[in-house]
């Protein structure tokens, strides 16, 4: 008979390395929470899952995004256990999930700030230039950019393109603009294989280092709190302003629905939109 550890190992085995690490962390906290509260995890109820997720295994209420992440992981685990016949009933099937906002309140760059950001990055070395150009001009996730190998970059094929390993364990060839292609070419130089973005030691660039690079460039142009994901949000919002069709934006950034573009774009439009001014002017006019 398989042990709980064997079941968990089977659940995690089919996941990509990055997803596996995230899921393992949540599952470990879930198992610890069950043990601390005298709950047999194979007999857990929906309420147990909801309480664990709502408090992230602790005493204080968790943020909505954390709650949703915890619910998603634990419910995936129980769906797997049910499908494999380890349990008779899936306790996660009908868990109640919090409603998330329909827009993102995260940071982004304006058009002028984006210009300054790219100009500043260009003068800070090949690695900084290539990373910032690629993230801002393609909308790639930071993990996708850092996962690039030299063999994934085809920069001399007339229309330069790279192959990203996308979230969800699929790969996609994406055309990149000339500025990003030239920056990548300068960084790669004569190398024929290995990671595109590297630490000074030669190891693949860590996400923490990439975050620091982006943040340092943004601070030099006077824009705090800019992260790699801010550049992805910027790519979406400014591409829409430029009149790029949503389908092309979705393809470049690896989004699977226009609702995700709305999610990134709505907060910015709410703050910068002209609806109120337009109505005010309209009401002030005489027929």
UniProtKB/TrEMBL annotation:
CDD domains listed in its UniProt record: INT_Rci_Hp1_C
Domain of life: Bacteria
Record-linked InterPro entries: CB, DNA_brk_join_enz, Integrase-like_cat_sf, Integrase_catalytic, Integrase_recombinase_N, Tyrosine_recombinase_XerCD
Ribonucleoprotein among keywords: no
Alphabetic keyword roster: DNA recombination, DNA-binding
Stretches assigned to the Tyr recombinase domain: 104-277
The Core-binding (CB) domain, residue ranges: 2-82
Protein name: Site-specific tyrosine recombinase XerD
Species this protein is from: Bifidobacterium adolescentis
